[in-house]
Amino acid sequence: MLKNFLTVGGWTMLSRVLGLVRDQLLAAFMGAGALQDAYQVAFRLPNMFRRLFGEGAFNAAFVPLFSALLTKEGKEEAQLFARRALGVMLVWLVFLCVLGEIFMPQVLKVIAPGFLQSGERYALAVSLSRITFPYLVLICAAALLAGVLNGLHRFGVASAAYLAFNVVGIAAILLASPFLPNVAYAAAWGVTASGVAQLGLLFWACERAHFGLTPLWPALTPRIRLLLRRMVPGLIGSGVGQINLTIDTIIGTLLPAGSVSLMYFADRINQLPLGVLGAAAGTTLLPVLTRHLAAGETDAAHAAQNRSIEYVLLLTLPAVAGLLVLAGPIMIVLFGHGSFTEHDALLSAQSLRAYAVGLPAFVMVKVLSPAFFARGDTRTPVYIGIGVLLLNFLLNLLFMKPLVHMGPPLASSLAACINVAVLALLLRQKNALLLAPETLGGIGRVGLGAAVMAILLVGLETLLPLPAHFILRLLWLTVMVGVGGMFYAAMLHILGVMDLAEVLAALRSRLNRKRR
């Protein structure tokens, strides 16, 4: 499982790096203002539906059913089920897309009420949203194909396909902008074009795997009915994080112009560790848990859950420490260029710290939710999700005035912490989460190592303040991250979490095998 975890994480990290380049271009060309706000709202809408219908509820219900069919009844039955599911998804999403295109002005009044104060920003957001909305059809279908490939244990191919989003997006910003009214239009067309590229790549990958997925005309067979029954309650249960971010966006439109942009760029940095670790853990854990439970291997399922928790916290906790200490320099170095000023970067860093507080919780939701989904339980997370949504909304209202652009991120972080606590409590009551003493001890030692690393970084930042020149700033940030990483690794060695000699020997052995 670790190999699959690292494969998905590696491809996702490469995608995130390219995404960072894309975001830097958006920041440099549009800054933090009305134009950026309008584009971010236009992108948030199809992205929310993608997470809910594609990577969220549909996948949470589809992958366990598909994996169980593949294990128990063979390839042909699993393939037939996947083709029928794809047909149902496409008909539903095309219908939803047509409705969205027709009623987009009304939709924007709901998700961006603050834009109504500025007619120009509202009109631009409507136009851009109509361009980006077809992306939800393309990417949700792509998510189903990726779920099939993951069920076939072809994790690398499915993860690599998502690189197309950022590659096409970068190309659109750089090459199409001169031919369109502004950069926002180029970026919006890039979103939809990337959906075409991703879906095409995944269809090709399925053909290469001898698992063609030509969609079948929708038919409500017993298995499709079961899929829909499991999917409907999961719309909220598996998509709480995205719905919370959408609430953040709604509240952000009511704040001063540019607030949506400040929160977006902060969230993009927060999404680097969250997307890599959360996606890797959730993607690889769900089919593994489903397979163990279908075979009656309860102890193996518990062991896989514990390993996932250990892996993600081993990498998440130092990321939190680093983001809390270095948020300002990170935002200045990465985004403080062109139209996005250094002052904008420092304001965005405040949002980043608020998001970072909840980073372990955001990731742990991805690890704990599969324990419900693998057992066919998509109802329990939905009940928890409703409560978390209400809590997030109330916290947003409480924080928006005094904390401005820091309020929505902090509300999401606190809501995520409550979400994890309730998920863990219910799993313990169902005997679906049994944390071994060595797992708990390892988490404590990892937390101590991350805390000591944070103290070291604070001391270094005090002694060596951020330089003025960009090249020196980039070098400074690289050195700080490198020193922090090495010190954290040394702390893990000292605390007995891992043996550096064994890790280095394993890396050398892996490199030698690749050379052969």
From TrEMBL:
Pathway given in the UniProt record: Cell wall biogenesis; peptidoglycan biosynthesis
Subcellular location: Cell inner membrane; Cell membrane
Keyword presence, Cytoplasm: no
Gene Ontology process terms (BP): cell wall organization; lipid translocation; peptidoglycan biosynthetic process; regulation of cell shape
GO molecular function per UniProt: lipid-linked peptidoglycan transporter activity
Entries under InterPro entries matching the protein: Lipid_II_flippase_MurJ/MviN (IPR051050), MurJ (IPR004268)
Keyword annotations of the record: Cell inner membrane, Cell membrane, Cell shape, Cell wall biogenesis/degradation, Membrane, Peptidoglycan synthesis, Transmembrane, Transmembrane helix, Transport
TM stretches of this protein: 90-112, 132-152, 159-180, 186-206, 227-251, 271-290, 311-335, 355-374, 381-400, 406-427, 448-468, 474-507
Keyword Glycoprotein: no
Chief location: membrane
GO cellular component: plasma membrane
Any single Pfam family the record assigns to this protein: MurJ
Family: Belongs to the MurJ/MviN family.
Role according to the record: Involved in peptidoglycan biosynthesis. Transports lipid-linked peptidoglycan precursors from the inner to the outer leaflet of the cytoplasmic membrane.
Name the UniProt record assigns to this protein: Probable lipid II flippase MurJ
